[in-house]
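Field: COMPLEX_INPUT
Field: COMPONENT_COUNT = two
Field: RESIDUE_TOTAL = 831
Field: MODE = joint
Values follow.
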Amino acid sequence: MDQHSFLFQAMIYLGAAVLMIPIAKKLGLGSVLGYLLAGILIGPAVLNLIGDQGQDIMHFAEFGVVMMLFVIGLELEPQLLWKLRHTILGLGGLQVFLTTLLVFFIAWLGFSLSWQASLAMGMTLSLSSTAIVLQSMQEKGQMSTAAGQSSFATLLFQDIAVIPMLAILPILAPMGAGATGDGTHGNNWINQFPGWAQTLITLGSVASIVVAGKYLIRPIFRFVASIRSRELFTSCALLLVVGIAVLMTQVGLSPALGTFLAGVVLANSEFRHELESDIEPFKGLLLGLFFMAVGASINMGLIAKQPLSIAGLVALLILVKGIVLFILGRFFKLGTDQSLIFTFALSQTGEFAFVLFSFASGAGILSNNDTQFMVAVVAISMAMTPLLMLLNEKLILPVTGTRIFVNEKEADHVPETDHPVIIAGFGHFGNTVGRYLRVHGIGMTILDHDSDRVDLLRKLGFNVYYGDASRHDLLHAAGAERARLMIIAIDNPEKRLEMIETVKKHFPHLRMMVRSRNRFDAYEQMNAGMMHVYRETLDTALRVGVDTLHWLGHRRYSAMRTARAFRKMDEENLKKLSSIREKEQYILTARELIEELENVLRTDRNSASLGQDHGWDEDSLIREAGKAQ
Amino acid sequence: MSRILILFAHPALEKSRIHKELISRAKNLESVYVHDLYEVYPELDIDLSREQELLLSHDIILLQHPFYWYSAPAIIKQWLDLVLEHGWAYGSTGKALHSKQMMNVISCGGSREVYQREGKNRFTVPELLAPFNQTAHLCGMEYLPPFVIHGTHRLNDTDITLSALQYESLLVALRDERISEDERKGIEYINDILPIPSAIQS
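Field: COMPLEX_OUTPUT
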């Protein structure tokens, strides 16, 4: 690609993204669907702006998935991973096994493929798309729900399962056909060694990532950080991810898995946030590129020729995967709604299929024609996922499982909507407030979007409405007209802002009290006109400060008073600093965080008189007594 | 042997010279319990049942505090308001504190001379302590003459040590019940019947 065409391509992709994402977001479709639509738009089927580069771009952009797993690893504490081990092995293992089995029989018996081709088909189609699922769920704030955790665990198992699958495919190849894959997995450096050595090298690489992450990478980053050049740090972070990906590819492992592991190892390091904020923009861009490439790669010509058989296959694929997922969801004790969310999220076949299919066709297991066909089916199934998740949310969830409110059809049950307080979000924050209010016998209505939690709370006799608390109709149903106070305790900052808007517009009489994560969150809420902003960490951190002073021998009462004075001062400074901030949306970088900290620390220094209670000070009296003598 | 409870209140003990010394000596005495109210209840969230138990298990209640604005620091008022419940400390059924003794232990900036009818402060210390006196009376307790340290702004380190010694001897005398009813009748300050270390007689 010469430079001109590179820039032209970049312009096309970025332009399509900038045009389509806001439209998709405004329509409530989510950014993944926006990217896919943008891809279709610029692809050969519609505008044909990207020529035949689509496949190349996709291979390049797959690296976004690798980066995403690195960032996810960074956010994941090893303990959590250990806790999830049963779900990963049990749920993930059964999902892959059962789907493979089912698809195998359908392909073998129903479509009379050879058993080798059927098995390749089964393995490939059992996988789901990490990129689409995690991105969509993060956007909807579902990662912390049971469905989110189960999806994550399943995807993780699938990532691991790709390795043995790649090992099995060559065995399935008919005699005579050389195992020539697509290059990324077929002819690795490792293949020149005998089997036992390959195993040793593979294990050694994984071990070396863990060991290097613990003992080598940190000193390197400490050194790089000491040079104080941001670009160097970014380069170093990129080098780390790329390096691991290359190493993993060389030994025949999934690069995504390797970087994920590195992320987990570095999750407890002091550079975690720095790494995250450095990799994040690359990850976002590449993932967007990846989704667009998927959109562009959908072979519209093929679809136009055989629309019915492709549609039928897509439907069959989603149905088969969906049945397995739903049954497993119920078997692993997810509630009906969580099972549905889990089912629709993972119902597609993922990006690994492109790799596995091209490998299988290269090895002669699948015919070229079948491969073309299946790639189209997979791409469409990926494009369908955001739509299906949306349909599930709007049409299916409201009428199944956890209802918006209990017993809405029972005539003798009048919903108690005259509660003075509505609490939106009953996680750790909301339930502490709620428990406290309940001790005082204050009637409250709870809004929550985690169906399992809603079911539990209802069992315990709480008045709970299920759904997205920023929706006007849900607030209306929950009796927002008659309530006096609204406590916004949900943990998604964007949803909180949406809620503030909705309440201001439809229920202006409601007094809102809003939880905020940190100063920046608080600024945005204040800019949205909120004055009652409660930073979740402020009081607790000051209590730690008070106890520290106590253990250092300070008086408890004095420490308590200075802490209160400090909090008051901090709240006032927050208001002052929020008023001098621009109203525009801030994109937070690590540098801005540091600048803000500097501002705050400087204002602190100006108030050295904090907690000086002159009323109890006898110095001046003693001086006066001295003079009189 | 009597058991003594010292209800101590100083909101800024780190700035105090005299009370630090008094408290550190009192703490070493057997059968004397120093209850540092501001340290135990920094948020003035006084634990009623614990306080009442403490009162029941002691015979002599001392309120030790600086004499801020002719009265006690805020937590003492809060303590009195909450702990001396009707039906427990006073009223027809409130006899829990009967026949116990109560006393103020205070430090004042002004000298004893200014706390006179003709002095700058126009009232004597016992007159200004009338609310405490009456509180003790209503609860059926004997109100003892106060222990007063005057002129705290002028005291040097030696004076403070001597005051502390005098306080220590008071606590021992009260504990060992060596102050007879006749002795304590009709005196203004309990200091007046204690041996006075020579340096603070001036």
